[in-house]
Design a protein that fits this description.
Blueprint (H helix, E strand, L loop, with lengths): L4 E4 L8 E4 H14 L25 H17 L18
Antiparallel strand pairs: 1-2
Length: about 90
């Protein structure tokens, strides 16, 4: 497998930093979650709807939608394998 090298300006003030291997994969995954579905005009199904669930009632339907969204984003990148799809709910910050 060829080594993939990328760069990011996240966390830097003046220039880009180069990323490779695990650090690049984590940044790519973070970027994928940060893009809302429909924002990428060349691929409207790319991205995540997680921000839309912030103020939704925390019922079984919302938890299932979150699980599906995470599964879809993680399975898009072949560098990751999702081992569990459990959503851990932290109610009221406790």
């Amino acid at each position: 497998m060829n080594k993939i090298i990328g760069y990011t300006t996240v966390g830097t003030l003046t220039s880009a930093k180069y990323l490779a291997d695990l650090e690049l994969a984590k940044q790519d995954l973070s970027n994928h979650f940060a893009i809302r579905k429909g924002e990428k005009w060349t691929n409207p199904e790319f991205g995540s709807n997680l921000p839309l669930y912030v103020f939704e009632p925390l019922d079984d339907a919302t938890i299932a939608a979150i699980e599906d969204d995470v599964m879809q984003v993680v399975s898009y990148d072949p560098r990751f394998d999702l081992e569990t799809k459990d959503v851990i709910v932290n109610r009221d910050g406790s």
